[in-house]
Design brief:
Number of domains: 4
Shape: globular
CATH topology of the largest domain: TIM Barrel
Bound molecules: 3-methyl-2-oxobutanoic acid, zinc ion
Largest sheet: 8 strands, parallel, barrel
Number of helices: 17
Strand content: 15-25%
CATH superfamily of the largest domain: Aldolase class I
Structural class: alpha/beta
CATH architecture of the largest domain: Alpha-Beta Barrel
CATH class of the largest domain: Alpha Beta
Strand order of the largest sheet: 1-2-3-4-5-6-7-8
Number of strands: 14
Helix content: 40-55%
Length: 516
C-alpha cells in the first residue's frame, strides 16, 4: 500500500471511472488499457480502473488492467453493499496493488431522497462494507458521497467509524461541486482536528467542477493537509467534470515555494497523456485550457513575445518542455526513412514494436505522398489511426472507398469492407451528400441500425493539405459510441471515423451479450 509522506501528495486518477461517466464517452477494454498504461508512464499513484459491479464491461476492464499495469495501485469503486464489494474484489484479485474504494451518500438530502434510509443505517452500511473490503485487501478507501453538504458532526462520526473499520484512505468528495475554496479548506482542517483516529488514514479529496472551482478546491484542501487528490486528465468527469489532474500536478510543482509539496509524477508525460485521452474519448481540449490547451504556451501580444525572446520567465511560469511540449521545427517528408520515423516517434513518446513501425511507416509514406511536410501533429494523428486499426480492434475493416458528387450529381458512394469472416464485401448507396452516401453504403454491409448524433471536422495543422480530423458519435439502444478518423481527404476521414464507432459498438455489444 502506498503511504503519503508528510509532503508527498498522492495522485489518484479516475479518468477511467468518473471520467468515463462523462456523457458521450464509451471506451472499449483495449482503449482503457491504452490509457492505463499511459497513466502508469505518467506516474500516477492510483488508477481507479472502473466500477466493477456496474457492468460486465467495467468488470472486464478492471480485471484486464490489473493484469497489464503493475506499478500503480489499481482501484475499483463499489457501493456499500456486499455484492459490489465482492465484484470489486473478483476484478481486482490479480492486481499487484489492489484497492477497494467503497462509497455511500452522507448528506441528508441524498440519504433521505435517494437512499430512503436514515443516517444510522448508512453508518452501519459503511462500516459493514469497509469491514468486508478489508477482509479482501489491506488497502481500502471510503468516500462519504456529497461530503460538502453533509452535517459536519455526522461526517466526523462516519469518517471515524470507517477508519476504525479499516479504511486506510478517507476521501472527502465535493460531489456536486458546491464548495468554495475557503469552506472546503476549513472542512478538511475540521476533519483533521475533530476525528480522533484521522492520523491512521490518508485524507483524500475529490472535487467536481460545477462552479469551476474543482482545481482551486483541491489545492485549498492540500494546503489544509489532504495528501491524496483525485481527478481526471483534461478535467473529464460527470457533468462539468472533475479536477483536472494536470492543473493540480503543475500547481504543486510550480508553487513548491509556497506549498512545499511534491508528487511522484513525471510531468514530461502530461502532454502525451492529455492527447491520448482526448484522442480516445473524442473530447477535444479547449485551446485556452491550462497546461495542455493549444494556446497554453503561445504568446500573441508583441510585448509578451518581446519579453519571452529576452528572457523566457518574463511571461512564462512553467517551461513548456516540463509538461512534454515538443518545441520542434523538425518535419519529416517523403524522403525520410524508417529510422528517421522511429526516432521522431520515440521523441514524441511512442514506444513501438517492429511490426507497429512497419505498419506506421507504410501509412507515413502514403501521407508523405499527399502532404509535403509531415509535422508532429500529423504523426500524432497518424498514430491515432494506427492504434484504431491494430489487429483485434476491428470487426470490419475499410478496404476501399470511392465517391462521386457535385452540384448536379446525386452523391453516390461505393465501399469495400473486410468482414469478421475475412471476406470482402462491396456495396453502394446514394445519400444527401458524400458523407451520407458513404455511411449508407457502410450501413448496407454492416447492418447495425444507429443514429448519428454528432459530426465534427477539424484540421490537424494549417494549410490546404492539412489532415482532416473527424469525430463522430452514434447512438444505439441508449449507448453512445465515439469514432475518430484522420486523413487528408475528409470523406475518407469520415468513413474511418464511422468504421471506428461501428467497431466500438460491435465490440462492446459483443462483451455485453457474452455476459447476458
Ligand atoms: O463524486 C463523487 O462523490 C464520487 C464518489 C463515488 C467518490 O465520484
Ligand atoms: Zn465524482
Amino acid at each position: 500500500m502506498k503511504k503519503s509522506s508528510d509532503n508527498k501528495v498522492l495522485i489518484f486518477d479516475t479518468t477511467l471511472r468518473d471520467g468515463e461517466q462523462s456523457a458521450g464517452i464509451g471506451l472499449t477494454v483495449e482503449e482503457k488499457i491504452d490509457i492505463a498504461k499511459q497513466l502508469e508512464r505518467l506516474g500516477v499513484d492510483i488508477i481507479e480502473a472502473g466500477f466493477a459491479a456496474s457492468s460486465e464491461g467495467d468488470h472486464e476492464a478492471v480485471q484486464a488492467i490489473t493484469k497489464q499495469v503493475k506499478k500503480p495501485i489499481i482501484a475499483s469503486l463499489a457501493r456499500c453493499v456486499p455484492d459490489d464489494v465482492d465484484r470489486a474484489w473478483e476484478a481486482l484479485r490479480e492486481a499487484a496493488h489492489p484497492r477497494i474504494h467503497v462509497f455511500i451518500s452522507s448528506s441528508d438530502v441524498q440519504i433521505l431522497h435517494q437512499l430512503r434510509k436514515n443516517p444510522e443505517e448508512v453508518l452501519d452500511m459503511a462500516v459493514a462494507a469497509v469491514e468486508k473490503a478489508k477482509g479482501y485487501c489491506e488497502d481500502v478507501e471510503f468516500s462519504p458521497m456529497d461530503a460538502t453538504r453533509t452535517d459536519i458532526d455526522y461526517l466526523y462520526k462516519l469518517v471515524e467509524a470507517s477508519i476504525y473499520a479499516g479504511a486506510t484512505t478517507v476521501n472527502i468528495p465535493d460531489t456536486v461541486g458546491y464548495a468554495l475554496p475557503s469552506e472546503f479548506s476549513r472542512r478538511i482542517q475540521d476533519i483533521r482536528a475533530n476525528v480522533p483516529n484521522i492520523d491512521q488514514a490518508v485524507v483524500s479529496v475529490h472535487c467536481h467542477n460545477d462552479l469551476g472551482n474543482a482545481s482551486a478546491n483541491s489545492l485549498a484542501a492540500v494546503q489544509a493537509g489532504a495528501r491524496q487528490v483525485e481527478g481526471c486528465i483534461n478535467g473529464l468527469g460527470e457533468r462539468a467534470g472533475n479536477a483536472a489532474l494536470e492543473e493540480i500536478i503543475m500547481a504543486i510543482e510550480t508553487r513548491k515555494d509556497t506549498l512545499g509539496l511534491s508528487t511522484n509524477i513525471d510531468t514530461t508525460q502530461i502532454y502525451r497523456t492529455s492527447r491520448l485521452v482526448s484522442d480516445i474519448t473524442g473530447f477535444p481540449v479547449q485551446p485556452n485550457k491550462a497546461i495542455v490547451g493549444a494556446n497554453a504556451f503561445r504568446h500573441a501580444s508583441g510585448i509578451h513575445q518581446d519579453g519571452i525572446l529576452k528572457e523566457r520567465t518574463t511571461f512564462e511560469i512553467m517551461d513548456p518542455q516540463s509538461v512534454g511540449w515538443k518545441n520542434t521545427s523538425l518535419v519529416l517528408g517523403k524522403l525520410s526513412g524508417r529510422a528517421g520515423l522511429r526516432s521522431r516517434l520515440e521523441d514524441l513518446g511512442y514506444e513501438i514494436s517492429q511490426d507497429q513501425l512497419d505498419s506506421a511507416f507504410e501509412a507515413f509514406k502514403d501521407l508523405a505522398d499527399r502532404k509535403r511536410e509531415v509535422t508532429d501533429a500529423d504523426l500524432d494523428a497518424l498514430m491515432g489511426n494506427q492504434r484504431r486499426i491494430e489487429p483485434g480492434r476491428e470487426r470490419y475493416k475499410l478496404e476501399h472507398i470511392q465517391v462521386s458528387c457535385g452540384d448536379h450529381e446525386i452523391p453516390t458512394a461505393t465501399v469495400k469492407l473486410k468482414g469478421p469472416d475475412g471476406k470482402s464485401v462491396t456495396d453502394a448507396a446514394t445519400g444527401t451528400g458524400p458523407v451520407d452516401a458513404v455511411y449508407e453504403a457502410i450501413n448496407r454491409i454492416v447492418e447495425v441500425s444507429n443514429v448519428l448524433t454528432e459530426f465534427r471536422v477539424n484540421a490537424v495543422t494549417e494549410g490546404i493539405d492539412a489532415i482532416g480530423d473527424v469525430t463522430i458519435r452514434i447512438e444505439r439502444k441508449g449507448e453512445t459510441y465515439v469514432g475518430r478518423g484522420t486523413d487528408t481527404d475528409i470523406i475518407v476521414a469520415s468513413a474511418k471515423a464511422y468504421m471506428n464507432s461501428l467497431n466500438r459498438l460491435l465490440t462492446m455489444e459483443e462483451v455485453r451479450s457474452s455476459h447476458s
